[in-house]
Each structure stands twice: as structure tokens, then as C-alpha cells.
Amino acid sequence: MSGIYIHIPFCRKACHYCNFHFSTSQQSKASLVAAIAKEAIIRKAYLTNTVSTIYFGGGTPSLLTAEELLLIKQALYSHFAVEADAEVTLEANPDDITQEKLAEWKKAGINRLSIGIQSFFEEDLQWMNRAHNAAQAKHCIILAQKAGFTNLTIDLIYGTPGLSNERWIANIQTAIALEVPHLSCYALTVEPDTALDKLIQKGKKETTDQTIQAEHFELLTKHLDTAGFEQYEISNFARPGFRSKHNSSYWQGKPYLGLGPSAHSFNGTTRQWNISNNALYIQSLDKGLVPSEAEQLTAEQQLNEYIMTSLRTIEGCSMEWIAENWSLQKVEDVLTAAKKYIDDEKLSFTDNRLLLTQKGKFLADGIAADLFQLS
């Protein structure tokens, strides 16, 4: 199965921590949507498998009108073999969610919502420079559920300066009380050249504390486990039957097509990415060209990507898979590199699979990087 990701690069407001490609000017929105539809047609041969997931990300896809959303959807369904029961996700901001919009999304075939809550507290939202307030954070979830969206997820951010353990627990418990079936929870990362990075450098905001972030992560996993959530990936927690099929396909190394400026595509051996410039993207598609670059992944790069993504999941990193797709020697090399983490109880080796322990989960990226194979 394959997936399609559509990047909608528009936001009402720039969040201080965000390093994704977006614009706060929506003047070119209609032209860009038309260009995305053109790209879908041009690249219709990219995926040879049936499409089982479609994901509208951004940016803020909830800024699209019903007509713009349908234009893209029609291009996809006309030129790709999309499963009848495909998971179709739309990222939405709380301030965009109304009864009218929810009805439009339902009619357009959206069957899963990903809502950027980030926090249920006013002070946190203001610190992040979010466009919504605390009341909207709660109300939008109730509205979506009343409109029939049972499959929904929310984002929460932890480890921000000033976020106490008590307030972080309250965020988690609020999500549980609202009966949200899926949560994506991320430690705040200070990305280079973001507004947050510049404010920290000027001494106008505090930087993050990894010790506090580790505490918040431990509290998160403890409370969600008690509430019956499965931590099926480092940052993702779901009730039974509510895993994100689209994001799971990334971690499983399945092929996907990315449409829109800055979107990435992967066919198993080659990675491709579109230009991160709205105007140049539109101009190129007007000429029938997709403005992109690509790289052919070496065998070692493919193995390292497998290590990185699989280790983040509950299924872990399979030595049998490495032996089948690379070599027995690579299995020995990976296990040799993993030994110190197994001895330190950050990794376990069970059923021929390497799995992160609770102690190792917060250090996942560093551990994976240590297991990488160099040519």
C-alpha cells in the first residue's frame, strides 16, 4: 500500500517554534491549490500500488475552502487507485473548526482529523504564539466529536520553559477526559533560525531543559499507559484501533508521494523533495514542470533509515529483516554496536528484535545514530 501527502503552506500566524515551510500571506492560495492538482496529474505514475492513506498537512490545511479541498481530492481520485476505505486525514487548527467547516470536511471525504492543540492552557499558547485560545482548544474537540469525527488525534507539546509537571499532567488528563483516541506528543525543539531560536539568543525567552523534558516524557508515558493507550511509536499514543495508518507507513518504509512545495516523496530507493518556495513552485507547474531534487539512497543509507524508523516503533528493529534485505554481516555489526545499550538496559533484544526500553525511549535518536552503518 502507498500514501499521498499534500503540503498546504499557509498559516494565519507564525508559531515561534515552527520550522516547516509556510507563508502567512494567503494571496496565492488558489493558484497554489491549482498547482498541486497539476502536480498530482503529472506524477500519477509515481505510485504503482493502491493508495491507502491521504494526508493533508502543512501549514494549516484547515484554511482551504471546500472548493479548494475538493479540487485536490478530485485530482487524486481521478489519477490514483485510492482504496474505498482509505484513511483521509486533515490537519486543522482549533480556531478554524466550526460546525459548517466540519460538515464540509465530512462531505469532502475527510474521515480523520489531526488537531493542533499543543496545550489547553492560555499561558502556554501565548508563549508559543498560537492563533487559538484555551477555550477553543477544548471546544473544537467537542464540536468535532458531535459532527461524527470519532477518529481524531491531537498534538501536545511538552518541555516548554515554565511548564510545570502539574500543568503538563493536567494537559494529559484533559485529553483523556475529552476521550481523544490518539495523541501525538512532542518535546519542544529549538530549531535553528526560527523565531524562538532568535528570541532565546536575544535573551527574551528561556531555552529548554532536557532534564525537565525527560520528566515530562516519563509522566506522559505513565499516565497514558494507565489510561489504556498504546505507545506504538516514541511520540504517538493510541487506543486500540486508532493508530495513524499514514504515519505508520512512514515508519514501515512504505512508498509515498508528496505534493506541494517542500513535500518529500519516497519510492523505496530514491528520495525526492520539492522546492520550498511558493511562487517558484506555482510558476514551474504552470509550465508543466515539477521543481524538485532527488537522491538515490545507498544500501547503507537505506539500512540506516530502517534502523532509525523501526527502532522508534513498538515492533522494533528486526534482525531477520536486516538479514533478508542486507546481510548477516550487517546483523552482526548492528548487534555489536547495540551491545553497550543492551548492557545499560536502554535496549532489549527479544525474539530477534532490538527494542527500546522505557529507559532508552527518550534517547532514541542518539541510540539509533550509534547503530548506523558506515560504508
From TrEMBL:
<dbReference type="Pfam" id="PF06969">
    <property type="entry name" value="HemN_C"/>
</dbReference>
<dbReference type="GO" id="GO:0005737">
    <property type="term" value="C:cytoplasm"/>
</dbReference>
<dbReference type="InterPro" id="IPR058240">
    <property type="entry name" value="rSAM_sf"/>
</dbReference>
<dbReference type="Pfam" id="PF04055">
    <property type="entry name" value="Radical_SAM"/>
</dbReference>
<keyword id="KW-0349">Heme</keyword>
<dbReference type="InterPro" id="IPR010723">
    <property type="entry name" value="HemN_C"/>
</dbReference>
<feature type="domain" description="Radical SAM core">
    <location>
        <begin position="1"/>
        <end position="230"/>
    </location>
</feature>
<dbReference type="InterPro" id="IPR004559">
    <property type="entry name" value="HemW-like"/>
</dbReference>
<comment type="similarity">
    <text>Belongs to the anaerobic coproporphyrinogen-III oxidase family. HemW subfamily.</text>
</comment>
<keyword id="KW-0963">Cytoplasm</keyword>
<keyword id="KW-0004">4Fe-4S</keyword>
<keyword id="KW-0479">Metal-binding</keyword>
<keyword id="KW-0408">Iron</keyword>
<protein>
    <recommendedName>
        <fullName>Heme chaperone HemW</fullName>
    </recommendedName>
</protein>
<dbReference type="GO" id="GO:0051539">
    <property type="term" value="F:4 iron, 4 sulfur cluster binding"/>
</dbReference>
<dbReference type="InterPro" id="IPR013785">
    <property type="entry name" value="Aldolase_TIM"/>
</dbReference>
<dbReference type="GO" id="GO:0006779">
    <property type="term" value="P:porphyrin-containing compound biosynthetic process"/>
</dbReference>
<dbReference type="InterPro" id="IPR007197">
    <property type="entry name" value="rSAM"/>
</dbReference>
<dbReference type="InterPro" id="IPR006638">
    <property type="entry name" value="Elp3/MiaA/NifB-like_rSAM"/>
</dbReference>
<dbReference type="GO" id="GO:0004109">
    <property type="term" value="F:coproporphyrinogen oxidase activity"/>
</dbReference>
<dbReference type="InterPro" id="IPR034505">
    <property type="entry name" value="Coproporphyrinogen-III_oxidase"/>
</dbReference>
<keyword id="KW-0949">S-adenosyl-L-methionine</keyword>
<keyword id="KW-0411">Iron-sulfur</keyword>
<comment type="function">
    <text>Probably acts as a heme chaperone, transferring heme to an unknown acceptor. Binds one molecule of heme per monomer, possibly covalently. Binds 1 [4Fe-4S] cluster. The cluster is coordinated with 3 cysteines and an exchangeable S-adenosyl-L-methionine.</text>
</comment>
<keyword id="KW-0143">Chaperone</keyword>
<dbReference type="GO" id="GO:0046872">
    <property type="term" value="F:metal ion binding"/>
</dbReference>
